Amino acid sequence: MLIRGLSASTLLIYNIAVLITLIFLLRRYKSNQIAIFIIILFWGGLFADMGKMVQNIYKIAVVIFAIHLPYKYYFKNEIKAVRPLWIALGAFVVFVVCVNLIVHRESPLLVFSQMYKYVVPAALFPILLHVCKHTINAYRLNRLFGEILVIQIALNVVKLVFVGGWYEGLVGSITGVAGGGAGTTLPLLGLCWFALNTNMNINNKKSIFFLIGFLFIGWMAGKRAVWLLFPILFFLLGIFVSKTISMKRILPLLLLLPLFLYLGLRFSPTLNPEKKIWGSFDPVYAWNYTMEYSAGKKDVTGDREVGAGRIGANTLLFQTFFYSGDNLSTFSRLIGLGIGHVFAPNYEDYSNRDYYLGISTRGALTGFGMFLMAFGAVGLILFILYLLRLTHYANSRNIRYIFGGVILFDFVFYNSTIVQDPALMVFMMFLIAYSNKTYNKYGEFRDITYLYKHLICK
């Protein structure tokens, strides 16, 4: 019996490994409810593979846990600080819930199951802000995320051994067999975590392990984009966050950038003419493939196919909702077509251009496209305002811009895995909160590990 191309025995063995790591971390942090909640979020893939009923029970438990924590750990100053963020998200949630229940007549279960993904991380944010104000607690929570990242890398080694090669699903413990978008975004968030802990100094084996490990996660999920986005983010973090401009700093960055690109084109079967691992290095072929995949093939006149690829889909939807929109009423452009239209379509509509307003397939929809089509221009604008407000909590301007760029790039040009997966959104929120401990508003780095080990613990 095959489950999305995998044998049941292979999936069972992999999930046993995932379960073992879950038990290990839960025992290690059994007295810390905040840590337990974060661990459970990151092991959502295990429950997803147990079936729809178990997954729904898991989601309900997560919501209850998320509501319980702010009451148990009530921090007045942090609650006050995040009030503008909660108001921004609340405006979006109220708008979406009212429109979908009253106008679109959507199932309440469907509506609230979508909203939980956005509400749960926001409920935890004031706790993360409070924890990261105190060096000891910030260090311990940061160590937890480091251990989670190491386990994600290790689980991908398990996947390589038992699956035998790259597979889009099973991205560590985060996703089950369905869903591999985290294979691109987790390495990017991991790199941001690396920057906050090292100031982008690559001076030991542990640093090399993490960098290779993050790329390995992307490669095992078959993600091409990570080979381009990872070096770009690597360079931006090294230059604009560390603020140490010297040949000693710049030279490794300049040497690693072409190395990442070279390895990416040779390791990704779709980016080389031979379509195999370790194929030839052909940048022209890789560029042409990328453009056809992202924006559609050119016709005889040189124009690219309308509505094909993520760039083509974004362009078409932007024109439809904000300019022409002849096939949509003004009301529909404002409030969207409903959650069910985008997040719960029939399988046979996957490649139905009429259903998706001229877009070639559902796979071409980015977060921008999904939100615009489901929630309309009003819903999209409200959610973007929420994301922009979130980045404001980083004191360092450069970190604010770079972290905001990561979130918005994933949202506008990819499938919005960060905002759609509570575990990744909580990780992003932790990075924003933790950045205020490791960098002051002037961008000066403070080594929290050194402070903890050499000053506090003496």
Automatic annotation (TrEMBL):
Keywords: Membrane, Transmembrane, Transmembrane helix. It comes from Bacteroides ovatus. The chain crosses the membrane at residues 6-26, 33-51, 57-74, 86-103, 115-132, 144-167, 173-195, 207-222, 228-245, 250-268, 364-387, 422-439. The keyword Transport does not apply. This is Uncharacterized protein.
